[in-house]
Amino acid sequence: MTETIAPPTEDLFRADAYQTEAGAVVLAVTETEKGIEILLDRTLFYPTGGGQPGDTGVIVSPSGAETRIMDTRKGSHPNAIVHHTDVAPAFSVGDAVTLRLDWPRRHRLMRMHTCLHLLSSVIPAGVTGGQVNEDKGRLDFDIGELVLDKDAIESQLNTLIAADHRVGQRWITDAELEENPGLVKTMSVQPPRGAGRVRLIDIPGVDLQPCGGTHVARTSEIGPVRVDKIENKGKRNRRVVLAFVEA
Predict the structure, then answer these.
(1) Which residues pair with 131 in a beta bridge?
(2) Helices 150-162 and 103-122 sit at what angle, rounded to 10 degrees?
(3) Angle at 114 between CA 182 and CA 153, to 5 degrees
C-alpha cells in the first residue's frame, strides 16, 4: 500500500503575522487517538515550535458553523500543518472554509516572543532553553562566570522596548548560516536546515538570529515587562522569567 504524502501547507503567518482571517480548502480530516486532525491547503495558525505554542481559533464551514481549533502542530510530513479539535467538524474534504484566529492570544504570544529576543541581546550568554506563554516567558542561559542583576536586566529591557525599534525579517541560505555560526544563540536547538534558506528575525542594531515564530512589528508594541525571577538551574544555568506588567 502506497502512503499518501501530505502536500505542504501554505503558511500565511510567515508573510503577515497580523492577518486574522483567511479562506482555505479542506484537504483531509483524520480521526486519531488524541482527537481529530484537519489539514488545509493554507493556514493562518502557527504550529507549536521553537518554544512558541500553537495557535487556536475557529474554522467556519460554508454553512457558518464554527469548529473550535484547540491546538495547531506540525504534521508527520514535511511542511504540513495540522489543526486539532475534539469535536466532529461541520465541514468535509473539499469544502472552502474560513479561518478565524484567536487574535488576542496570538498577539500576546507575539509580544512575549519578541521580548525574549531582546532578553537574549541583553544577556551575553548562550541560550539553553526557552518557552513563550501568554503572560510570561523564559530563557535559560549558560552564564559561566557571569553574574545576573535582576534590576539591571529589567531596566535594559524596558529601555529597548520603549525605543520602538523596528522588528523585521530576512532570509539567508543554509550555506550563509554555516558561514556565520554566531547567529545561532540557542545551544540546545538548531534552526532547521535543508530547505535551502533560513529565516532571520532582525531588530537592527539590537538582535539578529534565526527564528520561525511570529513577532510584533515594533518593540514598543510589547509594553512594559518585569523580570519576575531568576532561578538557579545548575552550576552554570540560570532561568530568567519575564512577565507583562499588565498581568
Answers:
(1) 138
(2) 120
(3) 80
Q: Does the CA dihedral 76-44-164-240 come out positive or negative? A: negative
Rounded distance between C-alpha atoms, residue 234 and residue 219, angstroms = 32
Query: Which pTM value belongs to this model?
Result: 0.90
> Does residue 80 contact residue 241 with C-beta atoms inside 8 Å?
no
Domains and CATH numbers, the chain: 10-101 (2.40.30.130), 106-244 (3.30.980.10)
Whether the pLDDT of residue 196 is over 90: the answer is: no
- Of 182, 177, 167, 168, the residue nearest 198 (C-alpha): 177
Instruction: Give just the sign of the alpha carbon dihedral 220, 14, 26, 84.
Output: negative
Give the model confidence (pLDDT) of 198-227 as tens digits.
888 999 999 988 888 999 999 999 999 999
**Helix, strand, or coil here: 155?**
helix
Spell out a b/e string for 172-201, using b for 16 or more CB atoms within 10 Å of the CB, else e.
beeeebeeeeeebbbeeeebeeeeeebbbb
